[in-house]
Specification:
The protein is α/β, with parallel strands linked by helices. It is 45% helix and 16% strand. The chain is globular, with a radius of gyration of 17 Å. The chain binds NADP nicotinamide-adenine-dinucleotide phosphate. InterPro entries: NAD(P)-bd_dom_sf, SDR_DHRS6-like, SDR_fam.
Length: 249
């Protein structure tokens, strides 16, 4: 039994696996970076703002096992430069999102403001697969908006759904590299400041009361599940839902 458990765990070529977390300066990505560091990984976090990366570096306090690289994942040249700098790594995780202006009624769709979301989440995901070399796994971030849609969330639903399909397609094309998507439910992160503004606390509390789990998620909840996707060598082409039962209510 113990042997089965050992064999099912990804065999890392190095003592400290190398992991790139794009979007790792905030929210869920920051939680994932912290959890990976605690697990012994060497972590590179990438995002657009050098200030937020520096703040994350101070918060994580991991010394030489943590690097930061300013990268806009929607810009091909920057993604190419990121992976030229890291070289081949063991795992890539992407949580990048720019959700400002992403939620709009379909009749008032403003293409310019939704392009930031599509560029960061979907084109970014494609560019990561094009330019990044992962020996073990790639994990994208989908989200509950695709599986329990709400009015005004059509663009986010479409992009999140596309990430599940992309993970499945790449799991075939890039095999034996494993490619999955994690799908968080509502998680208390700074993204809610952009989505709900002053109504953030009220909206999160109302959702917590509806969920079977009885609470909103934390970045640590999602990070723990991402760790399973990173380590379990038999999970590929999957969307892992970590949503407190949100799809059921
Ligand atoms: N929080 C939730 O309730 C929830 C629910 C379902 C799904 N999700 C998904 O979970 C993921 C993480 O969300 P979060 O709540 O942790 O968001 P967050 O706190 O706003 O963090 C987003 C991160 O992405 C980075 N980023 C944004 N645009 C980027 C770009 N073009 N290139 C590189 N980095 C970029 C941000 O840094 P810079 O701005 O400095 O670039 C930041 O580090 C997203 O995919 C989101 O859609 C979240």
């Amino acid at each position: 039994m113990a042997r089965d458990v050992l064999e099912n765990k990804e065999k890392h070529p190095m003592e400290h696996p190398q992991v790139v977390v794009i979007g790792g300066s905030s929210g869920i990505g920051l939680g994932i970076a912290g959890r990976l560091l605690a697990d012994g990984a060497n972590v590179t976090i990438a995002a657009r703002s050098a200030d937020r990366l520096a703040a994350a570096e101070r918060e994580l306090g991991a010394g030489e096992r943590l690097r930061t690289i300013v990268t806009d994942v929607s810009q091909e040249g920057q993604v190419e430069r990121l992976f030229a700098s890291t070289g081949p790594v063991d795992h890539i995780v992407c949580t990048a999102v720019d959700a400002v202006g992403a939620y709009q009624p379909i009749r008032r769709l403003d293409l310019t403001s939704i392009q930031k979301l599509v560029n960061a989440k979907l084109y970014g995901a494609l560019l990561i697969a094009k330019h990044g070399t992962a020996r073990g796994s790639i994990t994208y971030t989908s989200g509950i908006a695709a599986y329990r849609p709400a009015a005004g969330g059509s663009v986010v639903a479409a992009v999140n759904g596309a990430l599940g399909s992309l993970a499945a397609a790449l799991a075939i094309e890039l095999a034996p590299v494993r490619v999955n998507a994690i799908s968080p439910g509502w998680v208390d992160t700074p993204v809610w400041d952009a989505i709900a503004g002053d109504a953030k606390a009220e909206r999160l509390a109302a959702m917590a009361a509806r969920l079977p789990a009885g609470r909103i998620g934390s970045p640590a909840d999602i990070a723990e599940a991402v760790l399973a996707l990173v380590h379990n060598g038999f999970i590929t082409g999957t969307v892992l839902h970590v949503d407190g039962g949100h799809r059921l209510v």
